Amino acid sequence: MIRRLSSGVVDTARRLSTEVVSVARRLSTGNINQPQRMPSFTDDTEMSNIPTVASEVQIEAFKDLLAGAALCNNAEKQLVQDAQLGQDISKMKTELRLVGDAADTALYNLCVDRCYVDIDTVRKNNSRLKVLPFNSSNKFMIVANELQSVDPSVLESERTVLITMKGAPDIVIQRCSSYKTQKDEILELNADMKRTLFNRQEELGKNGYRVIAMCQQKTTRPQYDQMIERYTAEQRSQSAVTEDLNGFPSGDYCFIGLFSLLDPPRTEVPDSVLKARRAQIRVAMVTGDHPTTAKAIAKQVHIFTPEIAEINGVDSFKMEHDASGQPILNLYRNEKLLKQHAPGQVTRVDPENKSAKSMVKQAEIDAGDAEPDPLPPWYKRAWASCRNQFSEPKSDLPQATKMEYIPHAIVVAGAEIGFMDDLMWDWVLSHQELVFARTSPEQKLRIVVEFQRRGEVVAVTGDGTNDAPALKCAHLGVAMQSGTEVSKEAGDMILLDNNFSSIIQAIETGRLLSDNLKKVAIYLLPGGSWSQIWPVFFNLWFGMPLALSAFWATVFCMLNDVFMSLAMVTEKPERDIMSRPPSI
């Protein structure tokens, strides 16, 4: 299957990166146009200017940023046994390692290594009350901590509760009504300030930075308890809730600043993507990052190339309304209006195809909610096994001819995917270079289904639980060794080294094996089969006696032809093996 791939879907930009993320810049709202670069370990002058304790930081907004980075963070030091392939379990070494999400570990290192914050003490003194974990739908994380009071006369019931939100700027900023300056002043977050923050996010994203926004809200312990009790009562009464945030407030936060994270791509990824392109395999990026950041990363790893993205242009589209108020899709090329398209009827493709339904069915069986289907008779299973050896598995998706590609790139935001009709899907997926940004797990699955409907053989990479439907639906699901168990079960192949370039090596190996098997078959047909047919033919029609019995003829064929054909199995790849189109 892997030699026949025509399109590859990288489920996230992080799969192409080193996953060693560092905080490159921090931006507090006091001076919005002057972000400050974080000091490096090699600069002794800058290191000497860092305060030894967080309380000595003079910028009030940065104090709150450090507090949020320490408290709204799940990264922690743990004892980890690093198992290597083929290593004896008894000889595995245990070491203390920082475990957590790439963004959380970057913020953890900022607090500990750059600003000398004792995170363990901060977390112990400001105990965590409740947490809403980050997920790909909300794209933010919320944590409530009870702050320690320096005044001993303050009762425990009167302590302050700090609610911190961390996540995507375009989502977090919309939930804020005020912002804090460097002088600890709380000002209204008006439209002009929001526009300035979004412009700053765009500038950082164009340079490949991953931007995280942080905001907070302070309340008293009794008010917090009432809020949680109200949420619990609503859950018990099963009343309709517009947005389930585990009782946390949905708005009226105070914006305190931005973090920009630098996650450089692996050194071998750009060359691997170019090899895939030479093999006429399209590599599409599907990520939850901001479109500007995704576009910058795509250029770094050659998913967007100068020959197409820069010379021919990058397309995009946006849902807007015309003069009469009717919805209209404006198609842009290099930020210039190309044409307009009135969205038609959207084809509702059932994402639960045979593969996805089987996965859901198996989950229900494991949970004890359903009974397994009885096995078919042995002869039906034997016939199905033999049939699969000589024919490709049939998809339950509608058959379609393969589309022609256009030499342009495109960036699609997840918010616009729901408005796409069949014509828009044809136009989007016909681009040679594709990036899907701010996507949800449901949209990832829809992208895979639409690729398959247009005659593409699709491979998907993923490591999270939310990637399991797309991994299961794809023709080839590639899970990561560092991923969740659900993704590994859903995938067809597991990358033990978590390296994207291994997929390209596997494609080359698959094509080499296919070529060598063809060479062996071409050699054996005239060399083996025909040499046995002629003696039998002359014996039946002309009465000539057989030189060898059937047994010795078989032995002679095995020793002579088969062993000589093994030399072709070890043939090295041809020079054009990764320049040919997939053999579909």
Question: What does it look like?
Answer:
The chain has 584 residues and is α/β, with parallel strands linked by helices. It has 4 domains: 2-12 and 267-352 and 402-499, Rossmann fold (3-Layer(aba) Sandwich); 20-262, 3-Layer(aba) Sandwich (Calcium-transporting ATPase, cytoplasmic domain N), CATH 3.40.1110.10; 354-394, no CATH class; 511-569, no CATH class. 38% of the residues lie in helices and 22% in strands. The protein is built from 19 helices and 21 strands. It has helices spanning 44-48, 60-71, 102-114, 119-125, 169-172, 191-206, 221-237, 269-278, 291-300, 306-310, 354-366, 378-390, 414-417, 422-429, 441-453, 468-473, 485-490, 501-542, 550-569, and strands at 7-10, 22-28, 36-37, 76-81, 94-99, 128-132, 140-146, 160-167, 176-180, 186-188, 210-220, 253-262, 282-286, 314-321, 327-333, 336-341, 406-413, 431-437, 458-462, 476-480, 493-495. It has a 10-stranded mixed beta sheet. Strands 2, 3, 6, 7, 8, 9, 10, 11 and 12 form a 9-stranded mixed beta sheet that branches. A two-stranded antiparallel ribbon has the order 4-5. Strand 19, helix 16 (468-473) and strand 20 form a beta-alpha-beta unit. Helix 18 packs antiparallel against helix 19. Mean pLDDT is 79; it is low at 25-58.
